Amino acid sequence: MLLKNHSKLALECGTDEAGRGCLAGPVTAAAVILPLTFENSLLNDSKQLSEHKRDLLKPIIELEALNFGVSHVFQEEIDQINILNASILAMHQSISQLITQPEFIIVDGNRFKPYGTIPFETIIKGDGKYLSIAAASVLAKTYRDAYMNTIHEEFPMYNWKQNKGYPTKEHREAIRKYGVTKYHRKSFRLLPEQLKLDI
User: Which locations, inside or outside the cell, does it occupy (predicted)?
Assistant: First the structure.
Protein backbone atom coordinates (compact mmCIF):
# COMPACT_ATOMS: atom_id res chain seq x y z
CA MET A 1 0.00 0.00 0.00
CA LEU A 2 1.28 3.46 -0.87
CA LEU A 3 1.54 5.71 2.16
CA LYS A 4 0.35 9.27 1.94
CA ASN A 5 0.37 12.57 3.74
CA HIS A 6 -2.39 12.89 6.30
CA SER A 7 -3.30 16.50 5.53
CA LYS A 8 -2.15 19.55 3.64
CA LEU A 9 -0.70 21.18 6.76
CA ALA A 10 2.94 22.07 6.21
CA LEU A 11 3.88 21.42 9.83
CA GLU A 12 2.18 18.14 10.64
CA CYS A 13 4.15 15.84 12.91
CA GLY A 14 3.83 12.06 13.02
CA THR A 15 4.87 10.22 16.16
CA ASP A 16 5.31 6.55 17.06
CA GLU A 17 7.13 4.39 19.59
CA ALA A 18 9.13 1.16 19.61
CA GLY A 19 9.81 -1.33 22.38
CA ARG A 20 6.51 -1.17 24.21
CA GLY A 21 6.24 -4.95 24.58
CA CYS A 22 9.88 -5.56 25.54
CA LEU A 23 11.08 -7.03 28.83
CA ALA A 24 14.27 -4.97 28.88
CA GLY A 25 15.50 -1.58 27.79
CA PRO A 26 13.72 1.69 27.06
CA VAL A 27 10.60 2.53 25.15
CA THR A 28 11.74 4.84 22.37
CA ALA A 29 9.65 7.35 20.44
CA ALA A 30 10.28 9.59 17.48
CA ALA A 31 8.47 12.60 16.05
CA VAL A 32 8.94 13.62 12.43
CA ILE A 33 7.77 16.54 10.30
CA LEU A 34 8.19 15.70 6.62
CA PRO A 35 7.94 18.16 3.73
CA LEU A 36 4.63 17.91 1.86
CA THR A 37 6.60 16.89 -1.24
CA PHE A 38 8.26 13.92 0.49
CA GLU A 39 7.92 10.61 -1.31
CA ASN A 40 9.64 7.29 -0.75
CA SER A 41 8.36 4.02 -2.15
CA LEU A 42 10.37 2.00 0.39
CA LEU A 43 8.94 3.66 3.48
CA ASN A 44 6.39 1.61 5.42
CA ASP A 45 5.54 0.63 8.98
CA SER A 46 8.94 -0.32 10.48
CA LYS A 47 7.59 -3.74 11.54
CA GLN A 48 7.01 -4.55 7.85
CA LEU A 49 10.57 -3.64 6.88
CA SER A 50 13.76 -5.65 7.15
CA GLU A 51 16.53 -4.30 9.37
CA HIS A 52 18.52 -3.55 6.21
CA LYS A 53 15.69 -1.41 4.76
CA ARG A 54 15.22 0.45 8.06
CA ASP A 55 18.94 1.21 8.13
CA LEU A 56 18.74 2.50 4.55
CA LEU A 57 15.75 4.71 5.35
CA LYS A 58 17.10 6.23 8.59
CA PRO A 59 19.61 8.67 6.98
CA ILE A 60 17.13 9.56 4.20
CA ILE A 61 14.47 10.49 6.77
CA GLU A 62 16.97 12.43 8.88
CA LEU A 63 18.21 14.33 5.83
CA GLU A 64 14.86 15.08 4.23
CA ALA A 65 12.67 15.69 7.30
CA LEU A 66 11.99 19.33 8.12
CA ASN A 67 12.89 18.26 11.63
CA PHE A 68 12.73 15.25 13.91
CA GLY A 69 13.25 14.23 17.53
CA VAL A 70 13.94 10.90 19.24
CA SER A 71 13.61 10.12 22.93
CA HIS A 72 14.21 7.10 25.19
CA VAL A 73 12.26 6.55 28.41
CA PHE A 74 14.21 4.01 30.42
CA GLN A 75 13.13 0.97 32.40
CA GLU A 76 13.27 2.67 35.85
CA GLU A 77 10.71 5.24 34.74
CA ILE A 78 8.61 2.61 32.93
CA ASP A 79 8.41 0.73 36.24
CA GLN A 80 7.32 3.90 38.05
CA ILE A 81 4.72 5.30 35.66
CA ASN A 82 3.72 2.17 33.61
CA ILE A 83 4.38 1.43 29.96
CA LEU A 84 1.44 3.37 28.49
CA ASN A 85 2.41 6.57 30.29
CA ALA A 86 6.08 5.97 29.44
CA SER A 87 5.20 5.56 25.73
CA ILE A 88 3.25 8.82 25.72
CA LEU A 89 6.03 10.58 27.67
CA ALA A 90 8.60 9.41 25.11
CA MET A 91 6.39 10.78 22.31
CA HIS A 92 5.97 14.12 24.13
CA GLN A 93 9.74 14.34 24.70
CA SER A 94 10.46 13.63 21.04
CA ILE A 95 7.93 16.31 19.96
CA SER A 96 9.57 18.79 22.35
CA GLN A 97 12.86 18.33 20.45
CA LEU A 98 11.34 19.60 17.20
CA ILE A 99 12.86 22.93 16.22
CA THR A 100 9.54 24.07 14.75
CA GLN A 101 6.37 23.54 16.75
CA PRO A 102 3.93 21.39 14.74
CA GLU A 103 0.45 22.63 13.83
CA PHE A 104 -1.04 19.15 14.14
CA ILE A 105 0.11 15.81 15.59
CA ILE A 106 -0.84 12.38 14.25
CA VAL A 107 -0.17 9.48 16.59
CA ASP A 108 0.11 5.77 15.87
CA GLY A 109 -2.29 3.81 18.08
CA ASN A 110 -5.33 4.82 20.08
CA ARG A 111 -3.93 6.47 23.22
CA PHE A 112 -2.32 9.87 23.63
CA LYS A 113 -2.42 12.84 25.98
CA PRO A 114 -2.64 16.41 24.72
CA TYR A 115 0.71 18.04 24.01
CA GLY A 116 0.16 21.65 24.98
CA THR A 117 -2.68 23.05 22.89
CA ILE A 118 -1.67 21.38 19.63
CA PRO A 119 -4.56 19.42 18.11
CA PHE A 120 -3.92 15.72 17.54
CA GLU A 121 -5.48 12.59 16.13
CA THR A 122 -4.79 8.98 17.11
CA ILE A 123 -4.79 6.53 14.20
CA ILE A 124 -4.82 2.76 14.67
CA LYS A 125 -2.19 1.20 12.39
CA GLY A 126 -1.23 4.72 11.40
CA ASP A 127 2.34 3.59 10.71
CA GLY A 128 1.02 1.67 7.72
CA LYS A 129 -1.10 4.58 6.44
CA TYR A 130 0.76 7.86 6.76
CA LEU A 131 4.29 8.81 5.78
CA SER A 132 5.21 10.87 8.84
CA ILE A 133 4.10 8.14 11.29
CA ALA A 134 5.96 5.51 9.24
CA ALA A 135 9.08 7.72 9.28
CA ALA A 136 8.75 8.11 13.07
CA SER A 137 8.36 4.33 13.44
CA VAL A 138 11.59 3.75 11.49
CA LEU A 139 13.56 6.27 13.58
CA ALA A 140 12.16 4.97 16.89
CA LYS A 141 13.02 1.37 15.93
CA THR A 142 16.53 2.08 14.58
CA TYR A 143 17.55 4.26 17.53
CA ARG A 144 16.20 1.73 20.03
CA ASP A 145 17.89 -1.18 18.23
CA ALA A 146 21.21 0.67 18.29
CA TYR A 147 20.84 1.17 22.05
CA MET A 148 20.00 -2.51 22.60
CA ASN A 149 23.05 -3.51 20.53
CA THR A 150 25.19 -1.40 22.87
CA ILE A 151 23.89 -2.91 26.11
CA HIS A 152 24.13 -6.38 24.52
CA GLU A 153 27.92 -6.01 24.91
CA GLU A 154 27.47 -5.72 28.66
CA PHE A 155 25.12 -8.72 29.01
CA PRO A 156 25.62 -10.90 25.91
CA MET A 157 23.90 -13.92 27.47
CA TYR A 158 20.45 -12.37 26.84
CA ASN A 159 21.21 -11.91 23.12
CA TRP A 160 19.63 -8.46 22.96
CA LYS A 161 21.49 -7.89 19.71
CA GLN A 162 19.09 -10.40 18.22
CA ASN A 163 15.87 -10.15 20.26
CA LYS A 164 16.18 -6.43 21.17
CA GLY A 165 14.66 -7.16 24.59
CA TYR A 166 11.44 -8.72 23.30
CA PRO A 167 10.04 -11.76 25.16
CA THR A 168 11.48 -14.50 22.96
CA LYS A 169 11.83 -18.01 24.30
CA GLU A 170 15.61 -17.55 24.36
CA HIS A 171 15.34 -14.29 26.31
CA ARG A 172 13.06 -15.86 28.90
CA GLU A 173 15.40 -18.87 29.22
CA ALA A 174 18.31 -16.49 29.90
CA ILE A 175 16.27 -14.68 32.59
CA ARG A 176 15.50 -18.05 34.16
CA LYS A 177 19.17 -19.02 34.09
CA TYR A 178 20.92 -15.74 34.91
CA GLY A 179 18.23 -13.69 36.64
CA VAL A 180 17.45 -10.07 35.82
CA THR A 181 19.72 -7.14 35.01
CA LYS A 182 19.47 -3.43 35.73
CA TYR A 183 18.03 -3.08 32.20
CA HIS A 184 15.03 -5.35 32.82
CA ARG A 185 11.61 -3.86 33.52
CA LYS A 186 10.87 -5.09 37.01
CA SER A 187 7.15 -4.30 36.72
CA PHE A 188 6.77 -6.63 33.74
CA ARG A 189 5.94 -10.30 33.90
CA LEU A 190 9.41 -11.50 32.96
CA LEU A 191 8.66 -15.20 33.25
CA PRO A 192 5.32 -16.90 32.53
CA GLU A 193 5.26 -18.67 35.89
CA GLN A 194 6.36 -15.63 37.82
CA LEU A 195 4.13 -14.38 40.60
CA LYS A 196 6.70 -12.24 42.31
CA LEU A 197 10.24 -11.49 41.28
CA ASP A 198 12.94 -11.87 43.89
CA ILE A 199 15.10 -8.81 43.51
Answer: Cytoplasm
Which residues, in sequence order, are bridge partners of residue 71? 29
Question: What stretch of H or E contains 12?
Answer: strand 12-18
Asked if 40 and 32 count as a contact pair (C-beta separation under 8 A), the reply is no
Closest CA to 185 of 23, 18, 27: 23
Torsion of Cα atoms, 148 then 154 then 158 then 163, to 10°: 20
Amino acid present at 131: L
| Binding residue positions | 16-17, 108
pLDDT digits (tens, 9 = 90+) for 7-25: 777 899 999 999 999 999 9
What's the pTM value of the predicted model, to 2 decimals?
Answer: 0.93
Map residue 23 onto helix, strand or coil.
Answer: coil
Give the annotated binding-site residues for a divalent metal cation: 16-17, 108
* CATH, domain 12-148, list 1.10.10.200, 3.40.640.10, 3.30.420.10, 3.40.190.10: 3.30.420.10
Angle, vertex CA 30, rays to CA 168 and CA 39, nearest 5: 105
